[in-house]
Amino acid sequence: MADLSSLSHRFAQTVFEPYWSETVRDPLSLPALSGTQSCDLAIVGAGFTGLWSALKARERHPDARIILLEGRRLAQAASGRNGGFCAPSISHGVGNALERWPDEAETLVRLGLSNLDALESDLTRYGIEAEFERTGKVNLAATDWQAKGLASMRAAHARFGMDSRLIDGPDLAAKLDSPAYPKGLFEENYAYVNPARLVHGLARACLDAGVEIYETTQVTGLAETPDALRLTTKDGEVSARKVILATNADVPLLRRLRPTIIPIYDYTIMTEPLSDAQLASIGWTGRHGVADSGNQFHYSRKTADNRILWGGYDAVHHYGSKRDAGLLNRADSYARLEANFLATFPALADVRFSHAWGGIIDTSARLTFFAGTACGGRLAYALGFTGQGVSATRFAALTLLDHLDGLKTERTALRMTSKTPVPFPPEPLRSLAIHWAQSDLAREDRTGRRSALLRLMDRFGIGFGS
């Protein structure tokens, strides 16, 4: 357990668990798997990717037996610990698409926009009350070079017919009035969800459709036989004709995938509910979210009851890619988030924080998810979402099902999804390289100058972020 005693009085009543779980009405409690089962499709991981895969598999195959295995309780891992930013992108933004896949950027942008529309339609169709709201996002610039970056972002949006506008002065103050950020870019088409309610809503839709879901059922082994793939758990076994791996930042069951992602710890603090007067004092009376433009960036949004979520900045990798529940709380990161929050919103100096928590991001070296198959096409996987998975997981699920169904589609043809990213080196080189890159990224935030290392990484399509 992390020592949090050094935190300020603003954390005196803080709950160090995700706020989102408290908002779920009648949370599901499902049994663990026991005994031997057989099925047409087994899915490992009941986060966003696994749940979307199960629901979309049921739409395609009404009579199939589908079993979904979750090692924890629903919404305890990454899908219940994120900020709920629901982007109109599958490529970590338009700029990332243009930089890494210029020849297919137009396709990536189009598919990302249509995916968000389809996600909203699915929530309506299945009656999933995930607090979905498409209210836009303000991208903020603290420096002249970040402002130039916003102008480039605006040009990229215009190229693909996306609505956004540069704002400053009174226009920016009407959306966010902070001494830390003199420039901004408002994106019209950006959405938000309550992630825990989305998880439970998707799970209920799956159960209603006849999908079997087992909680606290960690898969410890995968074996290939001529007739099936066998998944071993503590108290049982599942024999499946086909398998989807949707395990996010957990250690991949396929050993060859382990170097393709690293677990990055990201932290969040959340205020108590704010009054209309408090929100007016910082100019934030709308329902939009905000994010700044630094390499070490903050993201922020409102909840349904007008708390402010404030997350990001630190992106912590532990030596050996350690994954430990005890690392989900970190006093240094909470204190840094508090200091940056107060510098951004000095009018809220008296605020207290009701919740604080951490989560793990499955970071790939190109900042986007990738997908593939194994075991002669009987197994499909997707991972590497790098903090942009809330909407992209739905697209990934469809891609995985295309692969398992043997379909050649626009999704499976994408180089972005089908090409495995550059692997991370083994230790100790891994931690040394990450520390070096993070130091150079922090220096670029201070000076606006990109180092030789970062330019070399750009040349080879390698990135680092959260």
Q: Can you offer a commentary on this structure?
A:
By secondary structure, this protein is α+β, with helices and mostly antiparallel strands. The protein is built from 13 helices and 19 strands. Strands 1, 2, 9, 10, 11, 12, 18 and 19 form an 8-stranded mixed beta sheet that branches. It has an 8-stranded mixed beta sheet with strand order 6-7-5-14-15-16-13-17, with helices on both faces. Strands 3-8-4 form a 3-stranded antiparallel beta sheet.
Task: List the main descriptive attributes of the protein structure presented here.
alpha+beta; globular; 22% strand; 466 residues; single chain
Question: How is this fold's topology laid out?
Answer:
Blueprint: E1 35-44, H1 48-60, E2 66-69, E3 85-86, H2 94-100, H3 105-125, E4 133-134, E5 137-141, H4 144-159, E6 164-168, H5 169-173, E7 183-187, E8 191-192, H6 195-208, E9 212-214, E10 219-224, E11 229-233, E12 236-245, E13 262-271, H7 276-281, E14 289-292, E15 298-302, E16 308-312, H8 331-344, E17 353-363, E18 370-374, E19 379-383, H9 389-404, H10 410-413, H11 415-418, H12 429-447, H13 452-459
Parallel strand pairs: 1-2, 1-12, 2-9, 5-14, 12-19
Antiparallel strand pairs: 3-8, 4-8, 5-7, 6-7, 10-11, 11-12, 13-16, 13-17, 14-15, 15-16, 18-19
Helix pairs in contact: 1-6, 1-9, 2-3, 3-9
